[in-house]
Amino acid sequence: MKLALIGFGQAGGKVVDEFLAFDDRIDGGFIESAVAVNSATTDLKGLEHVPRENRVLIGQARVKGHGVGADNELGAAVAEEDIDEIQGAIDSIPVHEIDAFLVVAGMGGGTGSGGAPVLAKHLKRIYTQPVYGLGILPGMDEGGIYTLNAARSFQTFVDEVDNLLVFDNDVWRSAGESVEGGYDRINREIVERFGLLFAAGEVEEGDHVAESVVDSSEIINTLSNGISTIGYASETVETNSGLLSSLTGGDDFDEGAATNRMTSLVRKAALGRLTLPCDVASADRGLVVATGPPSHLNRKGVERGRQWLEDETGSMEIRGGDYPIPHRDEVGAIVLLSGVTDVPRIDQLQQVAIEAQETTEEVRATAEEDFSSLMDTGGELDALF
Ligand code: GDP
């Protein structure tokens, strides 16, 4: 499906940048336009793929290009004040060509955390296309303020978008990795999953169209509301262009093995590491997409995987289809779970945030009292004026 991507804040901009590189690499064609919005000049300058004319600096009057720190209330305020500047960049998007907007942001910081929900609300008021969010949750070790920001932004963002796709940095970190190196790897993981899903709805006629290719309306129907998470599993396979098949004369592989492989890839995708871990049974809707070289996309395998997911979720709304990618040496399964409700990480985030909010209020009240008592001389000392 064709998307207009808008990256808000540093994480949002970097992930959109990575989406553009991925779309190019797989020749996906799922990005119609990409815009980056930030209150920090240096973050915008650091992007590589978002066109310069689509980089929007907001909040100049207040923060002079230095960013809002981790103040997401300020992030929301500058987004509201400069919404016309953002709209200016969106005006250059041929909106009639797109199937949906996707607003991407890290939820623990300031600019994206505060600004993304403001922009989503604005887009929904103006356009008829669905507006999706891709929200990135902070690691638990980032500290109370990031958790509090993320919990408050999450609460707001969910209400303003048609569906919030979630990625949790906390489950995707690796020990011993530098923060920067870690984000580069994590960003590639993000775009591979969400990128393959969106590219799936963008197969042109004549592009090895299988009968059961996923259509963008199936993605849109699966994303009708709530929160979503994605699982992905893949295996390297020998393609037609590979040495082995050219020696053996081509498409000579075991059909039964291909069915079993696809069925177990679907299970692995759903039961392995999800972008937001949750109880699979709590999903309201689902979509299974088989990706890879057309000859390996086994219909029976997808159908079995789809039925298995129906049993796991008890949902009658599990869709399935193919995304043929010729020349790829990997066969994979994407499982999109939508309308999930049993998500321990969100409960934990909210709990820690409520505690952080209470502690902040207590500390502030105590500090005010302590200051008053420090300055209290019982009226014996006169101030100058
Ligand atoms: P903003 O610029 O004020 O919106 O804030 P940032 O985007 O810099 O940071 C917000 C949160 O996003 C951080 O707390 C991190 O959890 C996360 N984050 C920052 N940079 C990246 C990145 O490149 N990739 C990912 N996955 N997360 C990031």
Automatic annotation (TrEMBL):
Keywords noted in UniProt: Cell cycle, Cell division, Cell shape, Cytoplasm, GTP-binding, Nucleotide-binding
Entry superkingdom: Archaea
PROSITE patterns in the cross-refs: TUBULIN
Domain Tubulin/FtsZ GTPase stretches: 2-235
GO CC list: cell division site; cytoplasm; microtubule
Compartments (UniProt record): Cytoplasm
Cell division is among the record's keywords: yes
Binding site for GTP: 10-14, 110-112, 142, 169, 187
Family matches, as Gene3D superfamilies: Tubulin/FtsZ, C-terminal domain, Tubulin/FtsZ, GTPase domain
Pfam families: CetZ_C, Tubulin
Family: Belongs to the CetZ family.
Role of this protein: Involved in cell shape control.
Protein name according to UniProt: Tubulin-like protein CetZ
Taxonomic source organism: Natrinema salifodinae
Gene name linked to the record: cetZ
